[in-house]
Amino acid sequence: MKNSIKKTLVASGLASLLLLSACSSDDREESTESNTDTNYSEAVDYSITGIEPGAGIMIAAETALEDYEHLDGWDLVSSSSGAMATALETAIENEEPIIITGWSPHWKFAKYDLHYLEDPKNSFGDDQSIETIVRKGLKEDQPNAYKVLDQFNWTSDDLDGVMEQIADGGDPAEVASNWVEDNPEMVAEWTEGAEEVSGEEIELSYVEWDTEIGSTNVVKKVLEDLGFEVKITPLDMAVMWESVATGETDGMVAAWLPVSQGELYEKHKDDVENLGVNLEGVKIGLVVPDYMDINSIEELEAK
Asked: What domain range includes position 62?
């Protein structure tokens, strides 16, 4: 009798364990299906977190909302570069969905795991470059500054290191000074053939984007080490182009071409001199955290 009861209890226990195991398995499968089937479009309230209105990437994003007809009714929310970065950080901390207007080089790609959404309609264009633009007559007026600006050229890896330190709270001037000190061979290439001066004044304009804050401060330090008195002036993008075209400022290393600032270049190209590319491989588009299981703009859903 005792053996019969014992066998019954063992069988009952095994049945319970099998039932619990099956339930756990079902729960895991349901959880996996839930993650896979997340409606990210609904989760972000059919909105894209952008930056300053009028920026080239915002114009491209507006074009994308037109090109991808199923995105009719989506909202492109204007803010600022800083506000966008804050929204991204908050979303990642909480592992929440977010879609932003993104670009690289940018420190956020070094800090977070992110990816671009594929853009089969090419609304955001092909890879771009950052180019150096100066006022007409700079070569004759200040040949040594012109030579440095003309020879300035570096890589995304170089700029990423500068941007990341500034984003972490470093003073831009101090970070730039340290970078210049640590990279004498590259600086020597930029300054080759340029003579030292004594107090010549030059003014560079820039947009307060992380890339331009980094690059402009580095160029400023290089020119100062040659004896220039350098003023750097943050301006709205359109005003920056206007200031160089009218000679109010001497130049900039902040022209994203041909897409982001292409319209401004076409407007002012007869009144400025383009010294060419200072950084290649620039990209813009819609960006999401890697934990979002989505790879293309076409996967976003209609509102």
From this structure: 40-126+286-299
